[in-house]
Design goal:
heterodimer, A: about 300 residues, mainly alpha, B: about 550 residues, alpha+beta, D-Maltodextrin-Binding Protein, domain 2, 2 domains, about 45% helix
Chain lengths: ~300, ~550
């Protein structure tokens, strides 16, 4: 094979490169540029000094996080919640995608897909109002039904142990429509002739799903999983903060790194300390994603991200 | 390989472009500087010409102000309908007096907590900003170098009238690291939590007035036992903490986390500062509210709700609400207007305790450290603070449109008053009680009369100044400990305050353990050291 020079390739692929350029510039400006700010994690921030001229103060900014005695609890909560969300959401979204493609009535399919998509556009602030009205002790919908039926009311807002379930359900409800689109696309990409051949061979609907659809979705599922694992140390602040708020009674079960940091710094606003926690999360995420990618590559090189 | 090479080349190209950008900026600066000095020379020449001509010669308190400037001021809250109209009037006066105009931007109540610090870190170009001790970000911004230091010379030169008005105590309260960064307001506001109470229920259970903690609990018990659909406090579960502290005669040390550090506010000779968990009163409170919560004095949703303090009271699901006098009076009046049969009134459960006034630094104005016109900003502030014309405009709006004068020191609201509001446009930073007008009330309501009676009573029995009233803890030296303690509070402290923590002794010992891990002892030592230094300095 004849080797071409670098510039030859640049010229040959110039259109593609041009299409790539905005994404590259975007990443450089918004992901690599701000990375310089990492140094803030090791500085005592002052307004006069800004990012670069503030004095250094070593690892002092990390102190509060480990001193609080909550570092382990919140890190654990963050990871467990994310694992729970990833597992439950992936399962649910795949199921929904498969069911939708198997539906023969086009209108019913479109309508149900739209309805499932809708919660994605509702902000967590609104969801928190909905959840409060469902779960409140005095006037909540759920407790209203329970007391009408003669049962004892459940005090959701003082019973932390129920919250992993509640949060998972709200998260799934909000994300299922949007998440299933990816899987729908993956299914649409499967060659229909395979299904036709299977049908001629006498495969029933379950065999088609388990022998064809799911194995062929695997690469997409893997990539989405890997992307999700990359954020495993980041809690969804919007959700946790809005649904739980300042209700300390639930924190053992609901506090994640992001809400803890918010609480610690809302009063004294030390930029250095928030940068320190951000760095802690980033480093952990980086390690996890490298490990996960390695693990996947043991199974099959094709499914890795890089 | 090739592809990687390409990406590296692109990265380098971009970096070069960025650096080139920086460099050209530097050049600009370099070339700019001589130009600006030239400009200065020119204006200098211009000035001397003016002086020779004696045609210009605009001065304020003997200082040259011939160059017109536009200032920018940040206030808290939301722009009212007629705000711009009123400030265009103010600007006419300022233009004439100090050859400057002010443009105002607002930081809304909901996001000033986050945006305030961003103004400084983002390098926003502005001159004046509202500030207040602790709730208005004064100490934290000052210790991070956001404000311009106001030296005695600076104040006396550019705002001599303010220097005349603000009492010595005001300046010493404003000290952060022995430097003043704000002009504190000047008024005697009582820092007292009172209750607005449903008069019909008081009548029903035979209370003509409620003047003590025990009486209040009696009343609450009757309400909780006999009424359905209404609880004593609705969702204001932690409301009783401040009235309790007040009736015990203790106050919290300014700038310290939550209500964890208290001192005896009644006795000026008692200079000890206690950690709340070591103080019997706190244990008593924790047990009392635990009991009350179990008896249903407030809703089980108290910790989860997003309701404001007044909501349950106005809806009729709470028999009382706790807040400061002015606010309780306002909501009692509102409730009475909507439901005249409620006969709401205002009560003070700590009537035997002499009351103190808020520190002057509870409202104030500061100058941005990077402001380009600090001197002129100070002159403008001098006008706001001491020129009755400007003061009335900022507080009440345009005379004849929004309000009308009654005598020299009173006013009545006119129909359009609500378009601007009374004393509600964040004009509190320069409140000056020497020239502040009071409202002339033709038909005072029950809460109005009660409020006047209470204020008169308090004025007769003002507590002697305690040196710690003006002390504010500077937490910057122990910021990691403060941040760690803040994470503990919501989880272990708040449930106790709401009486919702279950077994009280267990909850308190758990809180103590968590606080000690977080470094509360270091904070306590630092507070004691700073307080002692403060006492020595004053």
């Amino acid at each position: 094979m004849k080797k071409h020079g670098f510039w030859y390739k640049v010229k040959k692929y110039r259109i593609f490169l041009l299409m790539l350029l905005p994404a590259v510039i975007y990443t450089l400006i918004f992901s690599y540029g701000p990375m310089v700010g990492i140094i803030l994690a090791f500085k005592k921030y002052t307004y006069a000094g800004g990012i670069f001229k503030s004095p250094w103060n070593g690892f002092k900014n990390f102190e509060f996080f480990f001193k609080s005695g909550q570092a382990w609890t919140v890190t654990r909560n963050t990871v467990l919640y994310n694992l729970l969300f990833i597992a439950f959401n992936t399962f649910l979204q795949m199921t929904v995608a498969i069911l939708l493609t198997e539906l023969k009535n086009k209108y019913f399919r479109k309508i149900s897909q739209s309805i499932m998509f809708l919660p994605y556009f509702i902000s967590w602030v609104i969801v928190s109002v909905i959840s409060f009205n469902l779960l409140s002790y005095d006037y909540g919908f759920v407790n209203g039904i329970i007391s009408k039926l003669g049962g004892t009311k459940i005090n959701f807002y003082t019973t932390g142990v129920l919250w992993p379930l509640i949060l998972t359900l709200f998260n799934a409800w909000k994300g299922v429509g949007y998440g299933s689109v990816m899987y729908l696309a993956a299914i649409m990409g499967i060659d229909t002739s395979i299904y036709e051949a299977a049908e001629i061979d006498g495969a029933n609907v379950f065999q088609r799903i388990f022998r064809i659809t799911i194995p062929l979705m695997a690469p997409t599922v893997m990539i989405l999983l890997l992307l999700a694992v990359g954020g495993i140390f980041r809690g969804n602040f919007d959700m946790f903060y809005n649904l739980v708020g300042n209700n300390g009674l639930l924190y053992n079960y609901t506090d994640v790194i992001d809400t803890l940091t918010f609480r610690a710094l809302i009063t004294n606003k030390d930029f250095g300390m928030s940068a320190a926690v951000g760095l802690y999360q980033s480093v952990l995420c980086f390690i996890t994603i490298l490990a996960a990618n390695k693990l996947v590559s043991v199974y099959s090189e094709d499914y890795t991200l890089f | 390989m090739k592809r990687r090479l390409l990406s590296i080349v692109m990265v380098i190209a971009l970096l070069v472009a960025m650096l080139a950008g920086c460099k050209s900026n530097d050049k600009d600066k370099e070339t700019n500087q001589p130009v600006t000095t030239d400009d200065n020379k020119k204006t200098d020449n211009g000035k001397t010409k003016d002086d020779n001509d004696t045609s210009g010669g605009l001065t304020y308190k003997g200082i040259d102000i011939s160059k017109e400037v536009k200032l920018k001021m940040y206030l808290l809250g939301d722009r009212t309908k007629d705000f711009d109209l009123v400030y265009s009037e103010i600007n006419k006066i300022l233009k004439e007096k100090v050859n400057a105009t002010v443009e105002v931007d607002f930081l809304s109540w909901s996001d000033h907590d986050t945006r305030y610090s961003l103004l400084f870190s983002g390098g926003e170009d502005f001159d004046l900003i509202f500030t207040a001790s602790s709730w208005g970000h004064y100490e934290e911004t000052a210790s991070m170098g956001g404000f311009y230091e106001l030296t005695e010379d600076f104040i006396k030169t550019y705002a001599p009238d303010i220097w005349e008005v603000v009492p010595e105590a005001g300046w010493s309260q404003a000290l952060v690291d022995n430097k003043v960064y704000m002009v504190p307001n000047y008024q005697n506001e009582f820092a007292v939590h009172v209750l607005a109470v449903r008069g019909d229920l008081m009548e029903k259970y035979g209370f003509s007035d409620i003047t003590s903690w025990n009486q209040l609990i009696d009343f609450y018990e009757k309400v909780a036992e006999n009424e359905t659909g209404i609880t004593p406090l609705g969702t204001q579960g932690s409301g009783l903490l401040y009235p309790f502290y007040l009736h015990k005669g203790v106050d919290t040390v300014g700038g310290t986390p939550a209500e964890l550090f208290v001192f005896n506010t009644i006795d000026p000779d008692d200079l000890s500062i206690s950690f709340a968990l070591d103080w019997d009163g706190f244990i008593e409170y924790a047990n009392a509210v635990h009991d009350m919560y179990n008896k249903g004095f407030w809703s089980a949703d108290s910790m989860a709700t997003t309701e404001e303090r007044q909501d349950s009271f106005l809806k009729g699901t709470a028999a009382s609400m706790v807040w400061n006098l002015g606010t309780c009076q306002m909501y009692a009046n509102q409730a009475n207007q909507e439901h005249p049969e409620w006969k709401c009134t205002v009560v003070d459960i700590a009537s035997h305790i002499p009351k103190g006034v808020n520190p002057y630094i509870n409202n104030g104005i500061a100058i941005n450290a990077t402001s380009k016109n600090k001197e002129r900003a100070m002159m403008v502030l001098n006008e706001f603070y001491t020129n009755p014309e400007v003061f009335d405009l900022a507080m009440l709006g345009v005379e004849g449109v929004h309000w009308e004068a009654v005598g020299d020191d009173q006013f009545i609201e006119l129909e359009k008053s609500s378009d601007y509001g009374v004393d509600s446009n964040c004009n509190w930073g320069w409140t000056n009680m020497e020239i502040k007008r009071t409202k002339y009330n033709e038909n005072p309501t029950i809460p109005d009369l009660k409020a006047i009676a209470l204020t008169d009573l308090w004025n007769e029995n003002v507590k002697p100044d305690h040196i710690y009233d003006g002390f504010t803890f500077d937490s910057s030296k122990v910021s990691s400990e403060i941040a760690a303690v803040d994470t503990v509070l919501a989880q272990y402290y708040n449930p106790i305050i709401y009486g919702m923590a279950g077994d009280v002794d267990k909850a308190i010992s758990e809180l103590r353990k968590q606080l000690e891990n977080a470094g509360i002892n270091t904070i306590y030592e630092e507070i004691k050291a700073q307080a002692a230094a403060f006492v020595d300095n004053n």
